[in-house]
Amino acid sequence: MPATKATPKELLPVIDTPLIQYAIEEARDAGVERMIFVSHPSKSAIERHVRDDVGLREMLRGRGKTGLEQRLKDAAIDEQRHDVVFVMQDEPLGLGHAVLLAHEHVLPGPVAVILPDDLILGGRGCLAEMIDAYASCDSGHLVAAMDVDPETVSSYGILSPLTQEGAFVKSNAIVEKPSVDEAPSNSAVVGRYILHPDIFDALSTQEAGAGGEIQLTDAIARGIAEIGLSGFRFSGIRFDCGSKRGMLAAALHIARRDPDLAPVLSEFLDSAEPGRSDRFFAADKTVA
């Protein structure tokens, strides 16, 4: 707020690309066959962005704007290659409830979940890394994990690690938003999941937890003994784009690598105080 009063946060741009577009491209690159968008009736603009607008493209092409027309075509989901389903969550009853609403539309087997406001950038998509890793993981639930500052653990689901082998963090518990004193570690779950299909049975009987919402982490925790849980330490950089700080850090990270935008940053840094640049890009080196 106030930017999201009329514009869904999933459509807020990082430079010129909405957050939802990064999620779509990550899913496409990972080979996802069916994309289920759990949205809200007030966010009809998301569906307009996701689906191909042939009329708009024809108008642009008729005006000679073929480059822009091609960009819109590439951004839209090709519904000849990918199934697209929209499901409405009328009330904000939590992430677990949102995932449960997708149940009747998912394909058989494990289910991938992406939270678009967790932007993860790197050489390879986080979800593609996780899908490849899942084949060699002995846990039914695989969640993206990263270390966070101890004072921020109350903002995350936190893993209770048993062992760490390579990128996997085998865990025997997950605690939703614990206090610093009660957190079993500082290994936090962020917005990528590959879930065993039994998660839907757990969610269907899950009682409300923190914040009066149906928490996905609570449902995952109930099945750890039978299904297993591992964290996955991904290679990319994660930006919390649910915050102003994270959005700014993500924009700077991308702009710094864009030949058209890098000179703008250089001009700014040249006019800044001596020694300022290291602090200016500190979030880029860790996480935001």
What would you note in describing this structure?
There is one protein chain. With 288 residues, the chain is an alpha+beta fold. The chain has 2 domains: 9-242, Spore Coat Polysaccharide Biosynthesis Protein SpsA, Chain A (Alpha-Beta Complex); 246-288, no CATH class. The chain has 13 helices and 12 strands. It has helices spanning 19-29, 44-50, 54-62, 66-75, 95-101, 126-134, 199-204, 216-222, 224-227, 244-256, 262-271, 277-280, 282-285; strands spanning 13-14, 17-18, 34-39, 83-88, 111-114, 118-121, 141-147, 157-165, 168-176, 187-195, 229-233, 237-240. It has a 5-stranded mixed barrel. A two-stranded antiparallel sheet has the order 1-2. Strand 1 (13-14) and strand 2 form a beta hairpin. Mean pLDDT is 91; it is low at 279-288.
Short précis:
The protein is α+β, with helices and mostly antiparallel strands and 288 residues long. Helix content is 35%, strand content 23%.
End-to-end Cα distance, whole Å, is 19 Å
Give the total of beta strands.
12
**Hey, roughly how much beta strand do the residues contain?**
15-25%
CATH fold category name of the largest domain: Spore Coat Polysaccharide Biosynthesis Protein SpsA, Chain A
CATH architecture of the largest domain: Alpha-Beta Complex
Please give the largest β-sheet.
5 strands, mixed, barrel
Unreliably modeled segments: 279-288
